[in-house]
């Protein structure tokens, strides 16, 4: 899913067998990706910086309109958004971004905006629930009754699929803000404005940068910060195994994308924490549970398409 | 649900409107309860010590047989068992107790035993999933898309209901073994043989007894141990809010049954930990989420009945 606009053939084999047209928007905190697919083919995709709401949603809508003129009217539009978002259809804040600290976006009515402009059925959920749904439909979580997708980037978020549907209760999971036990002698205060040393405050890109004194992407795999971070992530993995009993925990996002060695350390520490209690799950079994997403960085935008499929 | 055998009228208004006959067994680590219900009435119930498997299942079966002779053949039998249990119908260990440390019970085929003896449809799950299902059907979790039932007694366990069904993934939730951050200056090692200071190792009846130097039930509500325990339980409550986004967390079991003041402290500490991040959920809202079960100590045996309903 490269930047700019263009036809991308990378979806071949992933999407539906039929020939229907769907559009999607993955709205992230720093960038948005719009795309349009027909059957198995991604016809076009485009990337936009996430600026102020009216302007950002306007230019995305203009692009969708241009694609509609070129390719025809989509069956449905999927919107996978950064959160927290309103997901209860009986409430007035359904389809809105709710309590975000992101300037200007609090209370933005995403579903209302695009429904008014296009009159299409709209599938809506968090960006991470969309990615989890895409992995469940086309990726590494196919056939899994319980599956989790976690993204570790500028923030940490997670989506949960139970029996083919995103998990919604009071709101939706907020896995990035779990509090974990720290390793001995570690006094890093964490960078989360709400919680300090929650998972996002400890292991997101900005947190890693602050801990290692260099850009997160530049930290070598043998840097000592990974020992602490692997232990902290393992605490969260053990929590997820004990609360949700997932068959997959797929870890995506920029920070871990090419860090197989760190992921192996996370699995080893997770096995230590579970200590044989979850029947038959040791380090070897965790290699088939805690994995990278099969769709890679396409999980997010294909998540928007998976949400469009659900709505139609 | 008193000990011994007898008709219990306490179910009036709780159970189904129809007049069908169902039987249930709640199999706990120290005691088992069998019961038979018709429509809204509990016709009879009986309590048994949990001894060796063959003897225990034998005398429970004898009682069910006597009830069947008196009342007729039930539509189905529900079994709600201590765990871990096998819940995947495609596996050979379905219906078995799997890796329990309880002497003699590892590998016991509960469903096979009663199916062979009675030839009835059998509903099967953990004791806590059964209790959660009963609270969802007749109790404090009615209408909740996501609900959790936790029992704090000689051990700690939890069942999760999502969209009306017990949550099963790789296995089932094991909420008692969550690891939580400890309060400053606390060096109690915990009593869990697997994990030391997991939730069960810190806050179960035996753990409380060890921490306070007296029987758990005798600890006064103003004993300082509750400050630490309320903080530890609040850590777990915050984890559950962030992972499962439940509308109810019902806390039952012997330890907390009459400790409303401690429960209020757990809610206050939970609100501090979430720190406003889960939209609109502060201490006041948590009073409608973290609650005692409406069915009280009948949640367990009625859980077996709720499982019987599901199977027929």
Automatic annotation (TrEMBL), chains A, B:
GO MF, one annotated term: fructokinase activity
UniProt keyword Signal, yes or no: no
Catalysis performed (reactions): D-fructose + ATP = D-fructose 6-phosphate + ADP + H(+)
Enzyme Commission number: 2.7.1.4
The UniProt record lists the keyword Metal-binding: yes
Signal peptide: none
Pfam assignment, any one: ROK
Listed InterPro entries: ATPase_NBD (IPR043129), Carb_Metab_Reg_Kinase/Isom (IPR051804), ROK (IPR000600), ROK_cs (IPR049874)
Class of the enzyme per the UniProt entry, highest EC level: transferase
Assigned keywords, A-Z: Kinase, Magnesium, Metal-binding, Transferase, Zinc
Entry cofactors: Mg(2+)
Protein name as annotated: fructokinase
Organism: Rhizorhabdus dicambivorans
Upper lineage: Bacteria, Pseudomonadati, Pseudomonadota, Alphaproteobacteria, Sphingomonadales
């Amino acid at each position: 899913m490269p930047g700019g606009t263009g036809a991308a053939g990378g979806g071949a084999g992933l999407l539906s067998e039929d020939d229907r047209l769907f559009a999607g928007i993955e709205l992230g905190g720093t960038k948005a990706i719009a795309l349009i697919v027909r059957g198995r083919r991604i016809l076009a995709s485009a990337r936009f910086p996430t600026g102020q709401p009216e302007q950002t949603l306007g230019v995305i809508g203009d692009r969708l309109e241009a694609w509609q003129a070129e390719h025809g009217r989509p069956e449905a539009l999927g919107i996978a958004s950064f959160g927290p978002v309103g997901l209860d259809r009986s409430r007035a804040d359904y389809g809105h971004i709710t309590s975000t600290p992101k300037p200007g976006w609090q209370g933005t009515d995403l579903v209302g905006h695009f429904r008014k402009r296009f009159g299409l059925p709209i599938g809506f959920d968090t960006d991470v629930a969309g990615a989890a749904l895409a992995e469940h439909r086309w990726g590494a979580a196919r056939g899994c009754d319980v599956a989790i997708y976690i993204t570790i980037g500028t923030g940490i978020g997670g989506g949960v699929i139970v029996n083919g549907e995103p998990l919604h209760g009071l709101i939706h999971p907020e896995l990035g803000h779990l509090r974990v036990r720290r390793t001995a002698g570690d006094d890093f205060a964490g960078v989360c404005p709400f919680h300090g040393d929650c998972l996002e405050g400890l292991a997101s890109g900005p947190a890693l940068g602050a801990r290692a004194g260099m850009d997160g992407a530049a930290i070598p795999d043998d840097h000592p910060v990974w020992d602490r971070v692997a232990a902290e992530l393992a605490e969260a993995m053990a929590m997820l195994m004990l609360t949700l009993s997932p068959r997959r925990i797929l870890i995506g996002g920029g920070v871990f994308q090419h860090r197989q060695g760190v992921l192996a350390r996370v699995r080893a520490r997770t096995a230590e924490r579970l200590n044989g209690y979850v029947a038959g799950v040791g380090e070897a079994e965790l290699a088939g549970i805690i994995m990278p997403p099969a769709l890679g960085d396409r999980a997010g935008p294909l998540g928007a398409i998976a949400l469009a499929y659900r709505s139609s």
